Amino acid sequence: MLKEIRKIIHVDMDAFYASVEQRENPELRGKAIAVGGSEKRGVVMTASYEARKFGVRSAMPSKMAFERCPNIIFVKPHFETYGKVSKQIREIFKSYTNLVEPLSLDEAYLDVTENKFGNPSATLIAKEIKQRIKDELQLTASAGVSISKFLAKVASDMQKPDGLTVIPPDKAEAFIETLKIEKIPGIGKVTAEKMNKLGIKTGADIKKMELNELIKRFGKTGSYYYHLVRCENISPVVPDRIRKSLAAENTFNDDIEDENEMIEELEKIMEILERRILKTKTSGKTITLKIKYHDFQTTTRSKTLKSFTDSKNEIFEIVKELLSTPEKPFKPVRLLGVSLSNLNHENVNLKTDQLDLKF
Ligand code: TTP
Ligand code: MG
Fold first, then answer.
1. Selecting from 3.30.1490.110, 3.30.70.270, 3.40.630.40, 3.40.50.10490, what CATH number does the domain 8-14+80-172 have?
2. Is the pLDDT at 276 greater than 70, yes or no?
3. For this structure, is 107 an active site residue?
4. Which residues contact 132 (CB under 8 A, 6 or more apart)?
């Protein structure tokens, strides 16, 4: 049973990178565009809704996107602009409540149970937020309104683009019963297949199963599913997570094979990381290098020092060492990232610009 009903909104920008590009360049408006990649190589980061009609999707090889939609225009990403817009939408969210939990640049949860306007209707707030994003930023977002983060997120996806979907408290359980398990955040392809084999297709099918049975089949997450379908897993919207690491990373327009080029890119990434280290007055002991290959295989390599460091040079030396140990990258690389963890929290003003660090 629910102890207390919260009013949660999930907002997610529509075709985020692509919409920003169309806003910035009127010639791209109304056209099928993809951000990232080219006719020959690379991967699509996202596609405009015009391109999605042809079956173009995020993470698709751009060659395939070009085959499906020969008129598609490939646009290079402008991450700084996306970061700027992201900050602007967060400012809009924060004008309603401090309980804003960003999930990525373009989406966030808001708990508006109590809000700065004393507005009792989460639905009206969601409408207003969408309108402000349109008026102030010339972009569209989709919103979901419900009693939990999970339901609000599922709802925001239901009528994209420019959608507003409300799942009111008295409809929540019935809604989950009809929900296809593939739509449940956290259930990926593998789990979905496993569930389908067991005849579990919807929320109602999960509900029929005993807790023990679910735990036996799916481990700890079995218990999560059990409570989820009963609306019992209401996790709070957490605005100020205690940061465990500082990170910076970059996805390249074209995959990189040359080691020197990788080092050059890592140096740029180090500059961003350094800015973040200085801004938060943080130091840390563990340095991690993340490598994502063109086929999305991802590895991380770490080294932990005996004492805290905030020195860019020291970190960069270790990063270069990690790049070649235990082996040099052996296939084209699409993303490199560096993070500093095991932080010295005593020095950190945890309230300072937390959200910024997620970028
Ligand atoms: P999403 O919100 O997943 O996608 P979207 O905003 O482009 O489209 P919509 O929400 O309307 O379905 O991701 C937000 C941005 O993150 C997206 O614009 C580009 C980036 N992104 C990638 O770079 N690679 C990916 O694989 C995905 C899914 C997103
Ligand atoms: Mg989006």
1. 3.30.70.270
2. yes
3. yes
4. 92
pLDDT tens by residue, 244-274: 789 999 999 899 999 999 999 999 999 999 9
Choices 3.90.740.10, 1.10.150.20, 3.40.1670.10, 3.40.50.970: CATH for 176-228: 1.10.150.20
Q: What pLDDT was estimated at residue 119?
A: 96
Q: Which residues contact 243 (CB under 8 A, 6 or more apart)?
A: 280, 343, 348, 350, 354, 357
Mutating to test ligand 1, I would choose from 79, 85, 106 the residue with most ligand atoms within 8 A of its C-beta, which is 106
5 alpha carbon to ligand 2 midpoint, in Å? Answer: 27
The alpha carbon of 46 and the centre of ligand 2 are apart by a number of angstroms equal to 9
Q: What is the pLDDT of residues 43-65, one digit of tens each?
A: 999 999 999 999 999 999 999 99
Domain spanning 16-77 has what CATH number?
A: 3.40.1170.60
With a 6 Å cutoff on the Cβ, whether 106 touches ligand 1 is yes
Q: Does the CB atom of residue 38 touch ligand 1 within 6 A?
A: no
Q: How far apart are CA 215 and CA 314, in angstroms?
A: 46
Catalytic residue among 21, 101, 107, 274: 107
pTM above 0.90, yes or no: no
Q: Is the CB of 21 under 6 A from ligand 1?
A: no
CA of 46 to the centre of ligand 1 (A): 5
Mean pLDDT of 211-215: 95
Contact predicate 173/181, CB 8 Å: no
Q: How confident is the model at residue 98 (pLDDT cuts 50, 70, 90)?
A: very high
CA distance 75 to 79: 12
